[in-house]
Amino acid sequence: MSEKIVGILGGGQLGRMLAASASLLNVKVVILDAGDNGPAKQILAPSEPRLAHIDGSFADPQKIRELASKVDVLTVEIEHVDAAALEDIQTTTGLQIHPSPSAIRIIQDKFRQKEHLASNHLPVSDFVAVDSTVESISAAATQLGLPLMLKSRTLAYDGRGNFVLRELSQVPEAIAFLNNRPLYAEKWVPFTNEIAVMVVRTVDGELQSYPVAETVHKDNICHLVFAPLRSRDASLSQRARTIAENAIRSFTGAGIFGVEMFLMQDGKIFINEIAPRPHNSGHYTIEACETSQYENHLRAILALPLGSTALKVPSSAMLNLIGYSANMSEITAITTAALAVPGASVHLYGKAECRKGRKMGHITVVAPSDAELRARLRPLLQALPDATPAEVDRFAPPPPVPGAGFADAHPLVGIIMGSDSDLPVMLPAARILDRFGVPYELTIVSAHRTPDRLVEYARSAAARGLRTVIAGAGGAAHLPGMVAAMTALPVIGVPVKGSTLDGVDSLHSIVQMPRGIPVATVAINNGVNAGLLAVRILSAGIPGLIGAMDEYMKEMEQEVLGKVEKLQEVGWEKYVVKKT
Ligand SMILES: *[C@@H]1O[C@H](CO)[C@@H](O)[C@H](O)[C@H]1NC(C)=O
Q1: Contact indicator for 102, 252 with CB cutoff of 8 Å
Q2: 329 lines ligand 1 (CB under 6 A)
Q3: How far is the C-alpha of 223 from the C-alpha of 43, rounded, in Å?
Q4: Looking at ligand 1, which residue's alpha carbon is closest to its atom 14?
Q5: Cβ(328) – ligand 1 distance below 6 Å
Q6: Residue closest by Cα to atom 4 of ligand 1
Q7: Read out DSSP for 224-251?
Q8: pLDDT at 498
Q9: How much is the pLDDT for 179?
Q10: From 321, 324, 330, mutation site for ligand 1 pocket: most ligand atoms within 8 A of C-beta
């Protein structure tokens, strides 16, 4: 695929996954890291002696030069490398180094990174440089307010090197905790969610972003990642991708970058941090996207065409396996549970020993729907040694009991009606969805009495994960048509029989949609057909539903054939008497 030899500074789990992608493309890789048996080196036997891995630190200029002399392209799996040595190699030898040493130099110092982002008009929270003194930190607290985020400028990751200053009396404690390291202070960002976008850029500057993921942290370490992002704000994903792309455009060099962002209640986005390398929030791309972050990084730095960043599954989640103690069996218990879960892929990093807080591996789960994804994730969350029922329910709620009358937290179908009086007509649709195990929600949205709610519902339907809407209304029925006008999802209209015109008014209102905005219209009061049509629409993307629909139709056929037999057996005169 490429004759070029790739050198990687760092041989941890990110290097291991890069190496795995490289081996599929038969790209030769040389690793620089301490020891002979790190996660990356374990899976990459050198194909010839001159490509032997190097034992040494990725921060050691001498060792970096040794690696540079063996390879055609240098890259990193960690940003805490000797950027000056890389800059020197680039100027003296002209070696391809990606991302550029200058980008690494800016990003590895979080204060310079923030300055760079702010000067490029990218959204970041207010920040100031501080010294490790009571006066300097107190002045920053006066300027930016409390609580105040104190961060080490360098060598900090997974929340290490961060201190949340809640009151001024904590300043000495903060200085001690942060070990007199170079610091900066950041205005507290009261975010509601954390999101992340991977962005890849070629040597020619072509740029592509991955779908937005939601990240969930626990004890400052990434715990769970969900992709794609679900939101009531239909514009959010595109806004986040644009910000991430613009952020990466401001740096030089090719390869993959991770952009971590904060999402505020009002929909505002702040960039938290940039990683100039593959990132934990992009592990999901291995199983969930057409090209993983690792393969696209290699393609980018080797000047090969980029692969598609699109999702190839409807829903995915990544669970980090963080060491709970020195007891490796705790991790094994979770991975063993994962082997029984459909759509779950186990990644173990081959670390020599387990330690509390150490990233030992991860599990990616993919599924045909969010509801199915959470059902698959549930046993894995339950297998965590520190699982609490509340936390399991928060991320993987049990599906509602069919017929109990409550919405699924991750519905595929929205059943809406103009008025509660339509409920008897719409309930049969719900019963059909129950029968096929299709997750749904059911609620009242009136086109005439709650127009704002209608707009919000229709505009956010697809972004929340709905795939079909069933809308029932009587009289001058506008609900199905207005919903269809504001969402790209298929809409099924159910004309509801009123008192004056017997539902014909509603039928005509729904069926006579203008060209361009179709509404699939079922017979008056036929909620059953609306439910069945929704299942058929979903079955186009969920093959299991086609089989289930076949079964349903066979049952109907058997029912009618049974009546034919009975009619023959007892004669129609008796059959009629029997029936009445
Ligand atoms: C290690 O973890 C396993 C699985 O959770 C448990 O059964 C075992 O008792 C633990 N061993 C020690 C020494 O704590």
Answers
A1: yes
A2: yes
A3: 26
A4: 327
A5: no
A6: 330
A7: EEEES---S-TTHHHHHHHHHHHHHHTS
A8: 86
A9: 79
A10: 330
Most ligand 1 atoms within 8 A of CB, residue of 327, 328, 335 to mutate: 327
- The phi, psi pair for 90, rounded to 5°, reads -65, -45
Query: What DSSP string describes 55-85?
Result: ES-TT-HHHHHHHHHH-SEEEES-S-S-HHH
Question: Of 155, 233, 243, which Cα lies nearest the Cα of 192?
Answer: 233
DSSP string, 474-537: ESS--HHHHHHHH-SS-EEEEEE--SSSTTHHHHHHHH-PPTT---EE--TT-HHHHHHHHHHH
According to DSSP, residue 401 is labeled P
| Predicted confidence (pLDDT) per residue in 238-281, tens digit | 999 999 999 999 999 999 999 999 999 999 999 999 999 999 99
Tokens at 298, concatenated: 């290699």
Which residue ranges form the domains of the chain, and what is each CATH number?
Answer: 6-98 (3.40.50.20), 126-187 (3.30.1490.20), 195-395 (3.30.470.20), 413-542 (3.40.50.1970)
Instruction: Give the 3-state secondary structure of residue 441.
Output: strand
Span 432-439, mean pLDDT? 96
* 353 CA to centre of ligand 1 in angstroms: 15
If one residue of 321, 325, 329 were mutated to test the ligand 1 pocket, choosing by the most ligand atoms within 8 A of its CB, it would be 329
Cα dihedral sign, 457-460-462-463: negative
Q: Whose CA is closest to atom 13 on ligand 1?
A: 327
Ligand 1 centroid–CA 17 distance in Å is 29
Q: What is the number of the ligand 1 atom nearest to the C-alpha of 327?
A: 1
In short, whether 372's Cβ falls inside 6 Å of ligand 1 is no
Who's near 40: CB < 8 A, 6+ residues apart?
8, 10, 11, 12, 13, 15, 16, 18, 19, 31, 33, 77
Q: Is the pLDDT of residue 580 over 60?
A: no
Q: Which helix (H) or strand (E) holds 101?
A: helix 101-108
How far is Cα 361 from Cα 428, in angstroms, rounded to an integer?
46
Number of H helices, E strands in the chain: 21, 23
Q: Which residue has a Cα nearest atom 5 of ligand 1? A: 330
* Average of per-residue pLDDT across 414-419: 96
Residue 158 has pLDDT above 80, yes or no: no
Q: What is the pLDDT of residues 494-518, one digit of tens each?
A: 999 987 899 999 999 999 999 999 9
Give me the mean pLDDT over the 339-353 stretch: 96
User: Using CA of residue 188, residue 192, residue 198, residue 204, what is the dihedral sign?
Assistant: negative
Prediction pTM value: 0.93
Tens digits of per-residue pLDDT, 105-153? 999 999 999 999 999 999 999 999 999 899 999 999 999 999 999 999 9
Residue 90 pLDDT > 80, yes or no?
yes
Angle between helices 527-539 and 423-436 (to 10 degrees): 40
Rounded-to-integer distance, Cα 271 and Cα 279, Å? 15
pLDDT at 540 over 60: yes
Q: Which atom of ligand 1 is nearest to the CA of 333?
A: 4
Sign of the torsion angle spanned by Cα atoms 288, 294, 295, 300 = positive
* Whether the CB of 336 sits within 6 Å of ligand 1: no
pLDDT range class, residue 154, cuts 50, 70, 90: confident
